[in-house]
Design brief:
CATH superfamily of the largest domain: Enolase-like C-terminal domain
CATH class of the largest domain: Alpha Beta
Pfam family, one: MR_MLE_N
Number of helices: 15
Family: Belongs to the mandelate racemase/muconate lactonizing enzyme family.
Number of domains: 2
Bound molecules: [(2S)-5-oxo-2,5-dihydrofuran-2-yl]acetic acid, magnesium ion
Organism: Pseudonocardia parietis
CATH architecture of the largest domain: Alpha-Beta Barrel
Oligomer: single chain
InterPro entries: Enolase-like_C_sf, Enolase-like_N, Enolase_C-like, Mandel_Rmase/mucon_lact_enz_CS, Mandelate_racemase_C, Mandelate_racemase_N_dom, Muconate_cycloisomerase_anti
Radius of gyration: 20 Å
Order of helices and strands: EEEHHHHHEEHEHEHEHEHEHHEHHEH
Strand order of the largest sheet: 5-6-7-8-9-10-11
Protein name: L-alanine-DL-glutamate epimerase-like enolase superfamily enzyme
């Protein structure tokens, strides 16, 4: 087994803003694991410095200096052992996730079975939820309407968390007004509000009929956050504060979160499955989220979301790629009637357009 890590950058059609940052380009790393038999497992690695401290440079360094020495010469089917050995390095969760996804991709190709079927094969498509970035309230409502009309999407996650929270309240009420009662609205503050602002904003948004709020305030506000979670009728979900099994366990048993956002781009299939099992066992809500993935990452999220009963009941956040100007896949992912179908091909069904990769790679 050998590893290849290719940095690339694809521009966005327009930026996506959220409380703690903004993305303007998909500056990611394509991870390729080559087996001795010529199979290539592939996955995307996304640097999100504001949430996990990773950069393109740190991802390349982690692959080459920390993880390649563990993986080279090892049997790719030894996933649990590889998982244990990767844990000799703390953090770097998105790189570990990509290694895991690429190993599952290899396994699927070896067996001639899609990852979606290997994981559980519950259903063959997932309904999607679209993320509306922070902007002027009228523009946010316009974007939600366009995605609703063009793609049949009826679930939205609205980015909030501006300290001047009344603008967020206005945006959410406008989106509700523009789309009516048939759509489902969730929120994500990405830690942008203080606990007190979050409590005030959530109370003001109650008339909009919001189904959930993600990360209302910082985990550093230990008691304030607990009071905020206990004080709202809206279910509160953990995302970037609970990227691992142990942080999920703490979020639900100690901090009182009602649900967990599971992202395959930070916990792969193996660790996402453990997180899902924990949430299943505890009767906690789950949603499959998006780390602002390209279509490559979207294939993994869709395979996981559609594979399991608990994840398939709620629309998955898998439309961020619509913001990106182009993609590396030869066969683009399509949103049809508010849903994305799983790929039946072996493994993850990733086929890279090598000309596009040559064009967008940044290491030559
Ligand atoms: C989300 O749900 O928070 C924003 C930053 C990130 O890492 O993921 C996104 C979406
Ligand atoms: Mg989130």
């Amino acid at each position: 087994m050998s590893l290849e890590a290719i940095p690339y950058s694809i521009p966005y059609r327009r930026p996506l803003a959220f409380a703690i940052g903004e993305v303007r380009e998909a500056a990611h790393v394509l991870l390729r694991i080559h087996t001795d038999d010529g199979i290539v497992g592939q996955a995307d690695v996304l640097p999100r410095p504001y949430t996990y401290g990773e950069t393109v440079g740190s991802i390349l360094a982690a692959v080459h200096t920390l993880f390649a020495p563990v993986l080279v010469g090892r049997d790719p089917g030894n996933r649990e052992m590889i998982d244990r050995l990767l844990d000799n390095t703390v953090a770097n969760n998105t790189v570990k996730a990509a290694v895991d996804l690429a190993l599952w991709d290899i396994l699927g190709q070896e067996l001639g079975v899609s990852c979606h079927r290997l994981l559980g094969g519950y259903t063959d498509r997932v309904r999607v939820s679209h993320m509306v970035g922070i902007g002027k309230p009228a523009e946010m409502a316009e974007e939600a309407r366009r995605v609703h009309d063009d793609f049949g999407v009826t679930t939205f996650k609205v980015k909030v968390g501006r300290p001047e929270y009344r603008t967020d309240v206005e945006a959410v009420l406008r989106i509700r007004d523009a789309l009516g009662d048939d759509v489902v609205l969730g929120l994500d503050a990405n830690h942008g509000w203080t606990a007190e602002q979050a409590t005030a904003a959530l109370t003001a948004m109650e008339p909009a009929g919001v189904e959930l709020i993600e990360e209302p305030c910082p985990s550093s506000e230990v008691l304030g956050r607990r009071r905020c979670i206990a004080g709202t009728r809206i279910p509160v979900y953990a995302d970037e504060s609970a990227p691992t099994l142990e942080t999920v366990a703490r979020a639900v048993t100690t901090d009182g979160f009602d649900g967990i956002n599971i992202k395959t781009s930070r916990s792969g299939f193996t660790r996402s499955s453990r997180i899902l099992g924990l949430c299943d066992g505890l009767g906690i809500g789950v949603l499959v989220g998006n780390q602002i993935d390209t279509q490559l990452g979207t294939l993994a999220s869709v395979a996981f979301a559609a594979a399991h009963r608990h994840t398939a009941v709620r629309p998955a956040e898998v439309t961020n790629f619509l913001l990106i100007e182009d993609d590396l896949l030869t066969d683009p992912v399509r949103v049809v009637d508010g849903a994305i179908a799983v790929r039946p091909e072996p493994g993850l069904g990733i086929e890279i357009d090598e000309d596009k990769l040559d064009h967008y790679r940044t290491d030559r």
